[in-house]
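Hi R.,

Here's the chain you asked about this morning:
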Amino acid sequence: MKVRSIKTADSYVLGALLLWWLVNLWQAAFTELAHDEAYYYMFAARPDWGYFDHPPMTAWLIAAGRFLGDEIGVRFFFTLAQPLYLWILWRIIRPAEADCHDACLFVILSAALPILELYGFLAVPDVPLLLTTALFLLCFKRFAEHDTWLDTLLLGISMALMAYSKYHGALVVLFSVAVNPRLLLRPRLYLGGIIALLLILPHLFWQDANGWVSFSYHLHDRNGIFRFSNITEHLLNTVAVFNPLLFPLYFMAWKHVKPQNAVERALYWLPILFFLFFTVSTFKGRVQPQWLIVAAFGLISVLFRYLSQQERTARVRKYAMTVGWITIALALLMRIEMVWNPLHIRFEIFDNRPSFESVAAVADGRPVVFGGSYAIASKYIFYTGGEAYCQPDFFYRTSQWQFRDDDTRFIGKDILSGSLEKAGGEPLKENEVLLANGRKFVYTPVDDFQPVRLVEMTYAGGDTLLRRGDTLRCTLTFVNPYPYDITVGGEDTELLFLLSAKKLRFALPVNLSLLLPAASSAVATVTVPVPDDIPCKTYDSGFALHRRPLAFWYNSSRRKVEIK
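And here is the predicted structure, written out as C-alpha cells:
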C-alpha cells in the first residue's frame, strides 16, 4: 500500500507539472520578449564561456532553442526547467508515506508563489539557477547521507552548473554549508569544491582575459547610493513575489517545523539568509526581487512540511489551498493580459514588432546605433532582422555590447544614431517618429560613419588628490586602431575627462586639438581644471573621446581621484 500510495502521489505531481509546462509553453510562444530576454538573445548569437553581466548558461540555452525561431525558440528550454526543478524538489521533500493529498498540496503551494508563475517561461538567468540549485540540493542531500566518491563528483558538478547559471549560486553553497558546519570536517567536501573549480576554469579564463569585467560590474559599477526607500521597496517586493497572503503561514511554519537532516536545514535557512543578505545589500543600492528567487524552495519546503501535519493544521491547510487557487486564477488573468493585452498597458512586452518595424522603415536599410537601454538594439535585431548596435553610455552603463564589433563593421556606411524616449504631448519634430508602444524614436542621420570607441588611451602623471579649483595635468598616449585619421577638437569629436561616484557623474570638456593618424599613435599633455562647485568625493576618473551625436564611454583605464 505504501509503495502504491507513493507512486500515485508521484503520478499526480507529474501530471500537474505536465499541465503547468503546457501552459508555460503557450505563454512562451505568444508573449513578446522582455528587454532582458532580447539582450540575452544577443548573447546567444555568439556562444562563449562568459558575458559582461552573467555566466554563459542562459546564452547556451537560448542558442540551443534558436532552431525553433521566434519567441518560443528563445524560451523553449527555459520552459522545460520549471517542471524539472519542481520534480526534483518534490523528490527531496516527499514524505515517506506520501499520498495524493500531499501531491496536491505541493503543487498548489508551488503555484501559489507569483514569482514562480512568472519565471516559468522567461528566458532569464534565474531559471537555470533554480534548476541547478535543485540539482545541488539533491546532490547535497546524497552527499550528507552517504558521502561516496560518486556523491562527491555529483556535488562538484552541481556547484559548477550553478556557477555557470548565475553568480548567486555561490550564496546557495555558502549558506547550505554554513548551517551544516559538521560537513566542514569531511575532506570530500573540499574535493567537491576542487571539482567545481576545475569545471569552471574556462569561465574564469574568460574573465581573466576580459579584465574580470563581470565581477567589477556587480561588485562596484552597479552600486548606487543608499536611500531608505531601498529597504522599504525590498520588503514590499519580497512580500509581493512570495505571496502576501501566505506570509503569516511562513512564520507559523518556521516556528513549528524542526529540520531533521542537512538538506532540511539548508531549505529551512535559505529564505532567511537570502533575505538578510539582500537586506544588507540595500545599503549599496536597489535590490531586485528576483534575486531572492532561490528562497522559493525553502518556503515551499517549510510550509509543505508544516501543512502535511493534517491532524493539527487542517484549517490552516484549507486556508493555504484556498490562497493557492486564488493565486492560480489571478495568474491566469495575468497570462491572458501578457498575451493579448486587453487593458492596453504600455509595457516592454507589448507592441514590439510594430514599433521596431517603424524604426526600420525610417532606417531604410541603414544600420542603427542606439543610445540608452542596452536591450533596444537587441529587440530591433530580433523583430526586424536589421543591423544595429548599442553604444555604451557613460550616463547610463556599459554592457556586453562593448565586446561586439558591430560598429566597426558599419565603418564608411550611412547610419542612424537614435534612441527611444518618452513621448509627451508636444508635436513631433522632423527627426522624431511616434511608435506603437507609446514612445518616440529620436534619430540623427550620420553619413560615412567613423566610430572612435576603440581608440585606446593611457595616461601618466596627474595627482590622485585634488582640490576644487586645482588643475589636473597629465600626459595622454592615444592609439588609433582605425584606418582613418581622427581629429580631436574638431567639429564633431572632443576629449572628455570623466568623473563618476556611483550615480553622480560628470563629463568635463578638455581643451585639446590633436590629429590621430590612422593606425598610429600620438602623445599629448593635457590640463583639466577642477570646477569650484564639484562635490567633494572620491571618483573613478578616466578619459573618453566623444563623437557627436553618439554616446560615449571610457577610452582609457580608470583610476581613483579624490577631490577635497
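One quick note: The mean pLDDT is 92.

Cheers,
M.
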